[in-house]
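Sequence only, no structure available. Ideas?
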Amino acid sequence: MIRSAHTDPFTRDNLPPNDLWPELINIPAYPERLNASVELLDRTIDLVGREKIALMAPEGEITYGALLDQVKSLAHFFEASGVLPGNRVLLRGPNNASVVALWFALLRIGAVVVTTIHLQRTGELEKIMDIASVQFACVDHRYVEEWSAVTGFHGETFVYGSGIDDDLLQRCALFSGDHKPCDTASDDVSLLAFTSGSTGLPKATMHFHRDILTIADTFSKHVLKPKSSDIFAGSPPLAFTFGLGALVIFPFRVGATTLLLEGAPPPVLLKEIAKHHVTTLFTAPTAYRAMLPHLEETPLPSLRTCVSAGEHLPKSTWEAWNSATGIRIIDGIGATEMLHIFISASGDEIIPGMTGKVVPGYEAIVVDEEGRLVADGEVGRLAVKGPTGCRYLNDDRQRKYVEGGWNLTGDLYIKHANGYFQYQSRSDDMIISSGYNVAAPEVENALLLHPLVAECAVIGLPDEERGMVVAAYVVLMNGFVGSDQLRKELQDHVKETIVPFKYPRVLEFVEALPKTTTGKLQRFRLKS
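Reply:
I predicted one. Tokens follow.
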């Protein structure tokens, strides 16, 4: 390891033992001393200039130069307030310019950013605070209540966005002038990103300064291929690594512009894309499907690149979006543990229904339960390695995620002879009924082809006769009500769309599906 700049050694002391790390390969040749904030702001300004618009946000349009000036003021303020390199600082706020400035400033002084979603509740925040041993918090004034109820926090909270005198952003305005960034090592921890655990206890993934640049120089550079003239937008929160890469790291690496929206339900997102001439969109499959009925009244002539990740992209959704817009959605699989996407494809290399090929810099294989390579065309566990990898903060689950140097993502995949990977299901979502394997996403895709189905989730339920039966939970389009007749119609529709034995013998109509705060479907909650 390189000499750390952290005076607070907490994160380095709590890295997994070396023998539990994944094998890291193809690490870009970055210098040993590296600060991601400097690389994404100062060095980018050298390329595009101070006057280039960096952000279009609720606070207004902000140039790269103005943002850097604010970041320097915030850096001075945090240092004067006692924030030391290596200290953990929690961020709690929606997607806006203030969160971006705070994120850059904290990285600049060598602090470790603990990203949270502004809608998380007190109980969730307490777990994060405890695991990360948070010492400082920056909280949007509209979301103080839940944070104030957290027990066991003895650090200092900075409230921002209120505009009053003791507001963090008002106080930092008293500091000005140039700022010398912390001389961080490329392998100093820069952020702790939390991912949900199946047991309900979140896991903190640890990412270095070099990792932040690596995802821009792998997936973004080779698959996304952004330009400084691009305008990025999307719905994922910046606390979600999918959103952090999409809306900050990727555009800032090339000097592009980002449109930030504090709330972006599909109809709003669609109008904002059109209004601001967005070229590059990141969102979830459900959002693409929800926007489809509105495309005729709100065309998107500026949009040229669409990316989907976070959950399986049904082939039916891909084809419907392509038919309506002419745009081939870039699918991808990533993981919080890996920081971002590692299998994908773009342009003419996209094969509908396939996730894609391994992103340059990464390797992936499909293995059985014993870790042995399976033949092309057979279902197995996805294993991946590359320049980024899983490092949980002081968590025994590291042993389960990393085996033999490979990161095991928990996904079941087929690798085809042409090098393309095809998603089957999460490893705990495969339904085995009467000896047949039924992948939940395949049944979901069939149901989504029916015009009355807005959303659905498929799981396996215990059954004495068959071992398990396929069960579907369906959200109907607005204005329609479930009935026995419609239930049979949907079951017959599935029988006519895929192999008949895969149809859902149990089908329930529900008003909503259980999801995480980042919008990911929680099938396990349907099983309880």
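The first helix runs from residue 10 to 13.
Hope that gets you unstuck.
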